[in-house]
Recover the amino acids of this structure.
């Protein structure tokens, strides 16, 4: 059984978190959202003790994967539950290595453009940077 | 004006950018705004890892 490891994050906006997951290639319809946290399910179909408010079920991740979840803490941020197996592969690796944080930051910036700024371009560079050009009205 | 998102999620903005505090708060990093030592960049970094 692959144990879960926790990844503390600073994600505190559920809507942007889901947008960031979608940008990583996870279809919106494959992301489950709950007001009350639900148990994560492991590789063998066993309910784990870890619970989450935002869940990507293992069937959408990989044949040997466990559910990946994001649990909302009392502080209002989300902590990621990624299994020891999944942290080294696919979506789990992207979460643990910072790609989700990159996508989250990008969405935060893009969602802030409404304050009188005009979006000129969004360019994802080969070096992993994203350059967002805005015009000031 | 260009805003850069680094691969690790840190955000670079020009100094004095009007969106600085808004973005920092949205990222939950308002206490992690660090001023880059590289004056030629004239940018502010939002994120926990120090720049330079």
């Amino acid at each position: 059984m692959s144990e879960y490891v926790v990844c503390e994050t600073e994600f505190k906006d559920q809507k942007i978190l889901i947008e960031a997951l979608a940008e990583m290639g996870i279809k919106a319809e494959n992301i489950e959202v709950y007001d009350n946290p639900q148990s994560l399910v492991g590789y063998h179909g066993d309910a784990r003790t870890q619970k989450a408010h935002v869940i990507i079920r293992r069937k959408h991740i990989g044949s040997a994967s466990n559910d990946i979840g994001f649990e909302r803490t009392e502080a209002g941020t989300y902590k990621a539950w990624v299994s020891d197996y999944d942290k080294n592969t696919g979506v789990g690796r992207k979460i643990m290595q910072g790609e989700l944080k990159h996508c989250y930051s990008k969405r935060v910036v893009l969602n802030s453009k409404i304050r009188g700024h005009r979006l000129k371009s969004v360019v994802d560079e080969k070096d992993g940077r994203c350059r967002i050009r805005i015009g000031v009205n | 004006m260009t805003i850069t998102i680094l691969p690790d999620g840190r955000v670079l903005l020009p100094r004095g950018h009007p969106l600085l505090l808004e973005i920092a708060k949205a990222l939950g990093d308002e206490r992690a705004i660090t001023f880059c030592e590289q004056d030629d960049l004239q940018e502010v970094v939002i994120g926990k890892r120090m720049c330079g």
In short: The longest helix of chain B spans residues 20-27. The CA atoms of residues 17 and 24 of chain B lie 11 Å apart.
